Amino acid sequence: MRRGQHPPERHRGGHAGWLRAAVLGANDGIVSTASLVVGMAAAGAAHGQLLLAGMAGLVGGAMSMAAGEYVSVSSQSDAEHADLAKERRELREFPEGEHRELVGIYVERGLEPALAEQVATQLAAHDALGAHARDELGITENLRARPLQAALASAAAFATGALLPIVVVMIAPQSGAGGWVTGFSLACLAVLGGLAAVVGGAPAWRGAARVVAWSALAMGFTALVGRLFGVAIAG
Predict the structure, then answer these.
(1) Domains identified in the chain, total number
(2) Which of 6-10, 90-94, 169-173, 204-208 comes out lowest in average pLDDT?
(3) CA dist 67 to 17, 32, 37, 54, 64, Å?
(4) Residue 12 within a domain
């Protein structure tokens, strides 16, 4: 970098999309599977049953995440395609009106009318639909909805998180599997929440605290349900 040259800027907002999806998927994987295992352990399930419950939670949860994400992002993609088709038709049928609309957008953003006219003319000459998609509809290529990619990423993130409680069950003593799963899961969730907070520009302790608090609450309620129903079934 040359002397006096401004260093390249790195903004945290660009990480928001993938970071949110990855953290949400992994967090759900750990919390859901750990809660399931802890609830089964509180009900007095055998070691093999805990492993079976964990694997079922991993597969079912990953598929559920993939299906939900695919449906959600597909709906967004359908809306984007419909908006682009409408914009393409309006550009073909009402080019002058669409041009004035684009000029008005740039004027509202602070450009002088003459400059806004020049910018709109040049951008439309290069790619009219792209200019309207970006500046009128807020659709860009980097942020376009991709259902299959979103579904696979969500499933992978969930499965990665769900593996942790299963591995702990495999190596922990049978008598205390529930406690081991709870402890290791909360520790990993604290690290995950803190890391996400740091990348997002927030204090690590804040991210760790909120993730651990809600996760502990989920595991506690599940253990209570397992204990109550386990006693009822045994009786």
Answers:
(1) 1
(2) 6-10
(3) 19, 17, 23, 20, 5
(4) no
